[in-house]
Specification:
By secondary structure, the chain is α/β, with parallel strands linked by helices. The protein has helices at residues 10-22, 33-42, 59-69, 84-93, 105-120, 154-165, 173-181, 189-203, and strands at residues 2-6, 26-30, 47-51, 74-79, 97-100, 128-131, 134-137, 142-145, 148-151, 213-216, 220-223.
Length: 226
């Protein structure tokens, strides 16, 4: 993959560059948020490793700008703060995954590998879904509801694709963690709930009364569209 690393700490930035280059990836590194946005919008990347705490433009804003410019780009946020609020903020800004510092090298490589599989996968299912007056284009990562069009993250599209593919049954949170996140290591099922809540804000008429992605008590989630 072609990977953009955005990290202001020199030692970590160089270490990540060496690690991912040795794993066979084409790596570009940037120290600041503004230069990262400029680079990430001008050049094509498959994945961004994005530090939350940057000196000139914080990672949340960098994530928002990159997501608007490159809807299909995968973003893995790195944060030294492991609070739920920080994780929610990152996911709501468009991050596909997060990793709390300090992290194990094996876990980082596993997350990168998992996101890489999703970046290169060719879906076998139809890419346009219609439900409750909502048209969801999974290929373009777009949702149309009336006159409003919003952008999905690759992970949100992956969740919809998986739930629709297995619409005859409920899909558990642990299954989504394994199949969409690519790993179950150190991830809580609350991560799935936060991502689903953000997804519902985009696709449901009333997120408090969902009709497309349903909650199945004690089981997980299910496709509700007809």
């Amino acid at each position: 993959m072609r990977i953009l690393i955005v990290e202001d700490e020199r030692t970590l930035r160089e270490g990540l560059t060496d690690l991912l280059s040795a794993a066979g990836h084409d790596v570009v590194a940037r120290e600041g948020g503004r230069s990262a946005v400029d680079c990430g919008t001008r050049e094509a990347f498959d994945l961004v490793l994005l530090d939350l705490m940057l000196p000139d433009l914080d990672g949340i804003e960098v994530c928002r700008r990159l997501r608007r410019a490159r809807p299909s780009l995968y973003i893995l946020m790195l944060t030294a703060r492991g609070s739920e609020d920080d994780r929610v903020a990152g996911l709501e800004a468009g991050a596909d995954d997060y990793l709390t510092k300090p992290f194990a090298v094996r876990e980082l490589l596993a997350r990168v590998k998992a996101l890489g599989r999703r970046a290169t996968a060719t879906p076998a299912e139809p890419e346009i879904l219609e439900a409750d007056g909502c048209v969801i284009d999974l290929g373009r990562l777009e949702v149309d509801r009336g006159s409003e069009t919003v952008t999905l993250t690759p992970r949100e599209a992956g969740i919809l694709r998986w739930i629709h593919r297995h619409r005859a049954r409920a899909v558990s949170r642990s299954e989504l963690l394994e199949r969409i996140w690519g790993t179950s290591a150190d991830l809580q099922t609350r991560t799935v709930d936060m991502t689903i809540a953000n997804l519902r804000q985009k696709i449901e008429r009333d997120p408090t009364d969902p009709r497309i992605v349903l909650t199945v008590k004690g089981a997980g989630y299910a496709w509700g569209g007809q």
